[in-house]
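Archive transcription. Copying these from loose printouts into the bound notebook so they stop getting lost. Printout 1 of 2:
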Amino acid sequence: MSANGSAAAEPRLCHVRKVPDFDGYGFNLHAEKGKPGQYIGKVDEGSPAEAAGLRRGDRILEVNGQSIAGETHKQVVARIKQRPDDAELLVVAPAPGDPLPAELDAPPSPPSPVASAGVLAPAAPATDAEAPRLNLTMTAAEMRAHLASKKKVDPKKVPMDLKSKFDIVKKL
């Protein structure tokens, strides 16, 4: 218990290690504009992040032994990627009564058809004062698959054998 009588959340060191049968660490890093701090968004089931003890809403204090206070989202991502196979994250769970960032406040829900079509989806009918919110219901693996499916194929880079090239030139 802290001096004011509330239970203080204890920081936890989570050592996340990549495994061969899982792509990446399996969590989304979340930052909210205008508010300090980086948070753990969605944690994939069966992921290295889940095995290391990361939980949705955890606030990151340090990455690989270095404080991330005042760093941008991009800088924190670079720090996590600094080591090729693992990352040590010092995190703290939100204290009871502490507000979570807006997108993390709502309990996780299954992806809706609108949510699976893109990254941005309104959480509720948008009013003039409320802008569309980030959709964090997709797991990192789902997001990678979604983005990969949107990649365009450059016909100039498609491998072609010599006979096919000859046939094309012959038709000209």
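Printout 2 of 2:
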Amino acid sequence: MDLSTVVASSPSYGSKAVDAYKKAAATAATVTAYAVLARGVARELLPDELRDAARWAASFLLRGGARMRVPRRRRTFVIRRYDGDGYGDSSLFEDASAYLATRVDPHSMSRVCLSRRRSRDDDDEDYGAFGYCDGDKEGGGGGGHVMSMEVGASMDDVFEGVEFTWTSMTNCDGHDRQAASLELSFDAEHTDMVLRRYVPFITASVEDARRRDRALKIFSCDNGGSWRGSSYHHPATFDTLAMDPELKGSIVADLDRFLKRKEYYRRIGKAWKRGYLLYGPPGTGKSSLVAAIANYLRFNLYDLDLSKAESNSTLQCLLTSMPDKSILVIEDIDCCFSAITRSGPEKSAEQNADERPPDAPPPPKGQGITLSGLLNFVDGLWSTSGEQRIIIFTTNYKDRLDAALLRPGRMDMHVYMGYCCWEAFKTLARNYFLTDDHPLFPEIRELLSEVDVTPATVSEMLLRSEDVDVALQGLTECLQEKKQGKEIGEGGKA
């Protein structure tokens, strides 16, 4: 029996269905009306927090609690900028602004602030307006533009898998003046992470970037006992340095370890400094290594001529006035002090003159400079007058130095700069001619193993022609002549 037969046989069935439908529709309309009324009342009378809680509870009940979590409590830190009025320090604001500049993506943000990037010469110490810079794409260094957030704009940053929201604001600073600020918002449960890891990460990243982007200077002392500086643009780097690759790698690793050990030095109670003694024959690249270290660390150089300091007091003033993150260089330290031990008898001026090489400069004329005065700065009472300092002594004759200069804690790493080896030559060939192979390479390699020639001599020969064939042929002939002279000399001795 089909449905039409049932309806036809029961006249009251259709009317009952219609009545039931009408009652259901009326009930739904009533519920809807009450819901609209309740929503209006709630919007007018209930606070926002209560409405959010009620909305969450209703959603939780309707969905049976599935896939629902309690709303997380948010926290906001406000980082203000102070305009040098003594009411606060703006360094954290500057660090945060510089950090966010590295996170700006002009392709995903509708509004960004565009500004000119300062060149290195605009401000040597504070240079560091880095970030998204179109000039950097071509290695322009000082050109290009910097992008940053516009006032009122927001951007997200992710650190250790946690999302943070930054907002650029302008607020009243409490003295009826408008002051820029940055608001950092995040889930409150990550408060410890922000204070202990995120903010320190931001400041460390900015400090490292500014250090690597700063313009370098080299300072020398004048007769009045003060420093005079000028721009320093030496092109030497560890990539272009002609020396043994293993030794080069150990120096870089030592410098990296030194930079990261601030808390370590503080914990063991030692001054945060590192000493390097560079020794070897003239022309082996000691000055180039100093330049490479300066370029790698981005530390300014302080070239100390001890003949300009008339007394230990003047020397002390010069050394203690050096800022943090600097490199003290004393070249040819063997010519500055006579090779005596402090417990032994002092040698006469005639004896010292006889022991100096013919081409060495005369010793300093200062009346009161002593080795003890210098050592007092290296690791004595005045060694803690600054932090993150590098001390470099160079000498052609290590055996003539006072033993007090050589012990650990003063010169921590002794670096021998020897004659040109095969690996050093390959670096020079790559620097000058962008080549890693040549038919003359096997012969040159054999000759370098038999004769002593400095990297400076090899460089001079390679500079004589821009044609790689001509230059390498000239170098080969030079090495052959040295080999023949060596054989003649050994034959004469025999």
